[in-house]
Amino acid sequence: MTQDSDRLFEEIAYIAYHFHWSLDDILDLEHPLRRRFVEEIGRINQRLNEEH
Known about the structure:
- Pfam families: DUF6760.
- This is DUF6760 domain-containing protein.
- It is a single chain.
- This protein is an all-alpha fold.
- The chain has one domain.
- Helices cover 83% and strands 0% of the residues.
- It has helices spanning 3-19, 23-27, 31-51.
């Protein structure tokens, strides 16, 4: 696997874990939108962790 494919798997797993979306739904997202979801999930998690 390449670094790009490893990154793709990480993005898919991260979004699937948090949103419970199917693989097909996640792969249908354009890359910039998928990255935006990953970034937003990260920000939400960071805020929640700071509150505890």
